[in-house]
């Protein structure tokens, strides 16, 4: 089987960025331990470093390579989602217990980005499990579903043109197939429900 070059590149980029971002975070923490007044500027730097670190960890799972036997710890997922949500417009409610296969968490994180694209004013996304099926429900004050993008998830069209903002839609059909999952979704005025 050929390695997924894009996933390997994503893994490499995330791996190479996480160390310097972590070092910056450690430096900020050390500066905050000094007796001087660090003020609002230091708080802003600290918040930015934490957000960047969370996003890199998120991207590492969502866009990185995932082998069949790799697992992701529940506490890691909760930490990533809490840090990503801080200061954002989306709240993530992860109700799946225990460690999960990385391939399924990868599907969920990419799907979260797809759901976020449909919630322009923000909202809540609940991630649950019904037996072996993962269920994700996004709800907010306004739902804006790009039917062409979402329908292409069900029946990928050769030559479909994606923007960088919608790369998750390009990756999801292959990632879901790799995980042995079939996608179903429905939406109404203020919510979307996805199952895989």
UniProtKB/TrEMBL annotation:
Histidine phosphotransferase ChpT C-terminal domain residues: 76-189
Keyword Nucleus: no
UniProt superkingdom: Bacteria
Keyword NAD: no
Entry GO MF terms: transferase activity
Pfam families documented for this protein: HPTransfase
Protein keywords: Transferase
Name of this protein: Histidine phosphotransferase ChpT
Organism: Yoonia maricola
